[in-house]
Amino acid sequence: MSVVSRLSSMKARHLLPEQDQREIALHYVIGVLCVLACLAALIVMASDRAARGWAREIRAEVTVQVRPTGLESGSVAAARAAEVLAGVKGVGQVTALEPQKAKDLIKPWLGDAILDDLPIPNLVSVRLDDKTPATTKALTDALISHDIDASIDDHSVWMKDVEQSALTIRLISIGIFFIIFSATAAVVGFATRAGLTARANIVEVLSLCGATDLFIAQRFQYRFARMAFESGLLGAAIAAGVMAIIKATGSSQSFALALPFSWLDLLILLPCPFLVALIAAVTARIVTLRLLGGKG
Amino acid sequence: MAQINEKNRLANTVTGFLPGDDAVVAFDNVSLGYDAASEADFILKSLSFQLPAGSFHFLTGPSGAGKTSLLKMIYLAQAPTSGRISLFGEAVDNGDRAQVARLRSKLGIVFQEFRLLEHLNVFDNAALPLFVHGQNFRQYRDDVTELLNWVGLKNQLQAMPHVLSGGEKQRLAIARAVVTRPTLILADEPTGNIDYAMGLRIMRLFVELNRLGATVLIATHDESLVRASGMPVLELKDGQISRRDLNTTVGGRL
Lengths: 296, 254
Description:
The complex is a heterodimer.
Chain A (H helix, E strand, L loop, with lengths): L20 H40 E7 L6 H13 L4 E6 L2 H12 L11 E7 L7 H10 L3 E5 L2 H43 L1 H9 L4 H36 L4 H6 L12 H22 L4
Antiparallel strand pairs in A: 1-3, 1-4, 2-3
Chain B lengths: L1 H11 L10 E10 L11 E9 L3 E5 L6 H8 L7 E6 L2 E2 L5 H8 L2 E4 L11 H11 L4 H14 L15 H13 L5 E5 L7 H16 L3 E5 L3 H7 L3 E5 L2 E5 L10
Parallel strand pairs in B: 3-8, 3-9, 6-7, 7-8
Antiparallel strand pairs in B: 1-2, 1-4, 4-5, 9-10
Helix pairs in contact in B: 4-5, 4-6
Protein name (chain B): Cell division ATP-binding protein FtsE
GO molecular function (chain B): ATP binding; ATP hydrolysis activity; transmembrane transporter activity
Family (chain B): Belongs to the ABC transporter superfamily.
């Protein structure tokens, strides 16, 4: 390489001086925002998975309360109902809850004293087929056809609550995600203004050399996009680390139940640095063109 | 007021130029006032003149006469308070940013305060207009190196501006202004920070570029340099412009 070919280091990025103190702070702020945005994205994924899981579990379970008729005992009626329900298409596993087991379940709340005087319901737990679950009507029809007096609880009341809660969590997480990205855009816009003011002399020289507003805007666009990408990459890495720690340490079982992270969720972090860079580039371009009075 | 304007217009219409379509710069009844309440307080009053293509003029006048303001209006950094300016036969609209950029790309400007970019080295500062116009390093490296050699900066190609003396900065600013071989060269005190010998050398560069077809307008206090050149002079005084021809042959001693 000749001496002459080493003369110039001028590339698009070098038309603006290397970063100053303000930009280090901006790096930090964008990085933090990106961590929060990435965590919000991970929570969206996990809450969605949790909601689907809860809904699937609730849909797959049906509880049947059997009322014995005539001289038939409760446990016999429950056993007969279980046998009938097991024959319905779309039913997986059927278990008649033994009276003693039902008492054991109630005992912690009511104690031993009055337990014997209480009418313990005769319950049958029905696990539906995952792919082609039996409908409540099919189960009811089957029981009626065998003269079994029973009521079926398909948990639809709980289902609505669970779905509503899951939807709320998802919407809140998505909202937070977008609020954080809009905050990133605002921060970049503010920084672009500051950068443009701080480098007014450079902008003026470029302009007097015949540079178009678009040319100048592209310098700022490139600068802020690169900075945002680097910060975004760091932010995504930190968010991935946080998720990995939560998942690897197991955390508490209730936490894993509420937010069941999957390693595949990490894939959603991949576009985050690009997205934040895109936001920064577009914001820097718009702000620069507007400040220079261009029509963009 | 209309009568006063007309009177001023006639008084400030510089005669002796070659009016016509080949005017690179044309001022038509142009006035400029910074926060001035009345026309009497304007810094430049109803100026009408033209700079024909290929002409060479000095712009002189006492401090505060408005030389820099006049140059600013020509390089479109300052809009006139009233009147019309045309560059290269095109009426100027300072609000049209695309037009401003296009017209400026035909200009080479030397600023009194240099306006070098401190984070770029000498070579990159000189090559800046070429880079801005989309040329790549391979296209311009020989021309820029040769030009910097010519202005005496061949040993400082990679130096940063802050290590240069005032004279070296001036020469670099001049190199940057002429590197694109502009159609119109505007210089504000281009020899203010350099010695007489280097001043003459720089003037020879301007004359040479003028011979190659560039129109040149140089604002200066340096009467000796003006006399040495023998080029026509536009003199600004009391907001008005007048032409002064020197009794020397064209090109003078340069």
